[in-house]
TrEMBL record:
InterPro entries: HAD-like_hydrolase_sf, HAD-like_sf, HAD-SF_hydro_IA, HAD_2, HAD_sf, PGP-like_dom2. Pathway: Organic acid metabolism; glycolate biosynthesis; glycolate from 2-phosphoglycolate: step 1/1. It catalyses: 2-phosphoglycolate + H2O = glycolate + phosphate. Its EC number is 3.1.3.18. This is phosphoglycolate phosphatase. It is an enzyme of class 3 (hydrolase).
């Protein structure tokens, strides 16, 4: 039965994943110590990784001789510069409010479980005007290991008071889907074609928030039918 909906944030609630991905290319080019072009498939490895893990991937892609701490410091500065100037309302998938309303009307609990930093999550949700809609907000920085480790989803379900099999995760990245699936949740994928992401772990797939709402409504209807048997 459907008792909770747990959202990833970047790439689902707001289109920040692709924004960061688009600007990463020049960052990598500036560090690159080889003449080989970075392919879309190679760069796509960063999608869904927590902020602390991205510099490791970038160092490998650039074959940079710089110490990892130097790359990390540069990338963190780059990251915060990007998102200090973004108007998140312009990349907010506002139709999500229909899902939030449906959940409230049917006593379905709501949470955000994101690999991003807590301050980043809360800032975006506040700017978009939906922070108060969630029963729980969880950041990957709260744990030793973030996605694809399942701990973040297990913790979120425990705090919500629901069993993983009674919750659904809305994710766009392979790492996020793997985290949720390993924790025992069903996964609704937000279809992404601009980056090369393996989304094959999704149990259901929606091309946009409207389709995801339809899937959630169908899952809830199945719950009602089961309870009335």
């Amino acid at each position: 039965m459907l008792q909770a909906i747990i959202f990833d944030m970047d790439g689902v609630i707001v289109d920040t994943e692709y924004l960061e991905f688009s600007l990463q290319k020049q960052f990598i080019e500036n560090l690159k110590e080889h003449d080989r072009p970075i392919t879309l498939a190679e760069q796509s490895v960063v999608v869904g990784k927590c902020l602390s893990k991205i510099p490791v991937v970038i160092k490998k892609l650039a074959e940079s001789s710089l110490p990892i701490e130097e790359i990390r410091n540069r990338y963190y500065a780059f990251f915060h510069e990007i998102f200090s100037t973004v108007d998140f309302k312009t990349i907010f998938r506002s139709d999500i409010q229909k899902i939030l309303l449906f959940a409230k009307q049917n006593q379905i609990k709501l949470a955000v479980a994101s690999s991003s930093e807590t301050a980043h999550i809360k800032n975006i949700l506040t700017v978009c005007g939906i922070i108060d809609e969630f029963d729980l907000i969880v950041s990957g920085e709260q744990f030793e290991h973030s996605k694809p480790d399942p701990t973040i989803y297990r913790y979120t379900c425990e705090k919500l008071g629901v069993q993983p099999q009674n919750a659904v995760a809305v994710e766009d990245s392979y790492y996020g889907m793997l985290s949720a699936k390993t924790a025992g949740l069903a996964v609704i994928g937000y279809e992404e074609k601009r980056m090369l992401i393996d989304q094959s772990l999704a149990d259901y797939m929606g091309k946009d928030i409207g389709e995801i709402l339809e899937i959630i409504q169908q899952l809830y209807s199945k719950r009602l039918a089961f309870e009335n048997v």
